[in-house]
């Protein structure tokens, strides 16, 4: 059984950020295979930005950085923007629906970690 070295108070947020990053990477890849890729350009851009920042937030929390809360604040903002864009396509693209849900969960977890109301 693996043990975690990350500060325990960050564990739920770390898991939400990891899930979101993977969902965003998967969504961006799926969007690249849609028939009208140009229509998905903004979604792909936000997916990539969101995934990168989620992975960064995980790293900051895992190391117990004093800047983890600031990184998570920005992460929550980008997650919200990504969720809003993905929701535009969620009715006809399941990958966007799943990504939007993961982004919303991540934004909530980041805000909870920061002691803010979600």
Automatic annotation (TrEMBL):
Gene3D superfamilies to which the protein is assigned, alphabetical: 1.20.1270.360
Q: Which Pfam families match?
A: Csp
State which residue ranges cross the membrane: none
Coiled-coil residue windows: none
This protein's name: Four-helix bundle copper-binding protein
Organism, as annotated: Rudanella paleaurantiibacter
């Amino acid at each position: 059984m693996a043990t975690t070295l990350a500060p325990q108070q960050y564990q739920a947020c770390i898991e939400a950020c990891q899930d979101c990053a993977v969902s965003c990477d998967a969504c961006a890849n799926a969007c690249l295979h849609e028939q009208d890729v140009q229509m998905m350009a903004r979604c792909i851009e936000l997916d990539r930005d969101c995934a990168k920042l989620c992975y960064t937030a995980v790293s900051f929390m895992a190391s117990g950085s004093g800047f983890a809360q600031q990184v998570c604040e920005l992460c929550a903002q980008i997650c919200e923007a990504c969720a809003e864009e993905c929701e535009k396509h969620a009715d006809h693209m399941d990958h966007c629906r799943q990504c939007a849900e993961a982004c919303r969960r991540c934004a909530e977890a980041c805000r909870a970690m920061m002691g803010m109301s979600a």
